[in-house]
Design brief:
The chain has about 280 residues and is of the alpha/beta class. It has helices at about 20-25, 50-60, 70-85, 100-110, 125-140, 145-155, 170-175, 180-190, 210-225, 240-255, 265-275; strands spanning about 10-15, 30-35, 35-40, 40-45, 65-70, 90-95, 115-120, 160-165, 190-200, 200-210, 230-235, 255-265, 280-285. It contains eleven helices and 13 strands. The strands form three sheets. Strands 10-9-8-13-11-12 form a six-stranded mixed beta sheet, with helices on one face. The chain has a four-stranded parallel beta sheet with strand order 2-1-6-7, sandwiched between helices. It has a three-stranded antiparallel beta sheet with strand order 4-3-5, with helices on one face.
Length: about 280
């Protein structure tokens, strides 16, 4: 294996929708552009102007929070700062279907001619983005060239699976993702949707009657996808650390886990799934 180098030749950028824990961002030198959260007339940067705790306090307020891509100026600033040290930049972002982040990052890159920026569409959300950014940074620290890192990302991207269990349709209804009638019927029947995010598409793959059953189902889907192969796994949650830790213990018993991250998913998912959401993101080695 190539040894890590003190001075990588490729810089890595992502957005806060990647759900990467701060300690990993710092350890691997990953620059993060914050997603913006709109609450009424307020425009707030995730993790900068608005903490996760404050976000959850305001999620049930009279004004429904929404999320939006960062403006081009945020990317331009990040790229120009990095270009002072290295020309090659890989910018890994939330899936382009449903978010303008990739498009805005590409637009911003045109304004930074001193850098060679490649905007990489993860086709995923949360740690589906985070795993790619993390692997890109690890490769950069091992001295890999930009084209080799991109090839590695393509390989991993094809092997990423992402599932989520949602305890209520209340927030999907408030955000306009499902109709009021469907949400009311689902609430009456105590239906919990099970989602899969793959190739930039979010699909309802099952509907079950209890949240524990929904968690069991996403673990079943993950096992069907990877079998006994060694996997890198993330259990992500929306203000539900106890449920996430309990679920992580189940995952370790069922899957061949090489590495595991348990962390907060953040507002991009929580604004739609609401508190209590638990997701499982993994890829095989």
């Amino acid at each position: 294996m190539t040894q890590e180098t003190a001075e990588p030749q490729v810089a890595i950028v992502t957005d806060s929708a990647s759900s990467l824990p701060e300690d990993l961002r710092r350890r691997f030198g990953i620059s993060t552009v914050p997603i913006w959260i709109q609450i009424g007339d307020e425009s707030l940067k995730e993790g900068v102007d608005l903490s996760n705790d404050e976000f959850y306090k305001r999620l049930d307020g009279p004004l429904m929070p929404t999320t939006s891509a960062p403006p081009p100026s945020e990317f331009i600033e990040a790229y120009r700062t990095l270009a002072k040290k290295m020309k090659d930049i890989i910018s890994v972002h939330i899936m382009s279907q449903g978010s303008a982040t990739c498009a805005i990052a590409s637009l911003a890159a045109e304004s930074v001619p001193e850098a060679n920026v490649t905007v990489y569409d993860s086709g995923s959300v949360s740690m589906g983005v985070g795993f790619l950014a993390l692997e890109a940074a690890r490769c950069a620290l091992r001295g890999l060239k930009k084209e080799d890192i991109l090839a590695k990302l393509d390989y991993i991207k094809s092997r990423i699976y992402a599932f989520a269990a949602i305890p209520t349709l209340k927030y999907l209804r408030r955000s306009g993702r499902v109709s009021r009638g469907k949400a009311a019927l689902a609430s009456l029947l105590s239906i919990k949707p099970v989602l899969e995010i793959k190739d930039g598409v979010i699909s309802v793959v099952d509907q079950v009657r209890t949240f524990p059953r929904a968690l069991h189902r996403i673990l079943e889907l993950a096992h069907n996808a990877v079998g006994k192969r060694s996997a890198v796994v993330a259990v992500m949650h929306a203000n539900a650390p106890d449920a996430a830790n309990d679920f992580a213990a189940q995952v370790k018993k069922r899957l061949n886990v090489k590495e595991m991250i348990v962390g907060e998913a953040g507002p991009v998912l929580a604004v739609h799934g609401g508190p209590g959401l638990v997701g499982l993101v993994l890829y095989t080695l």
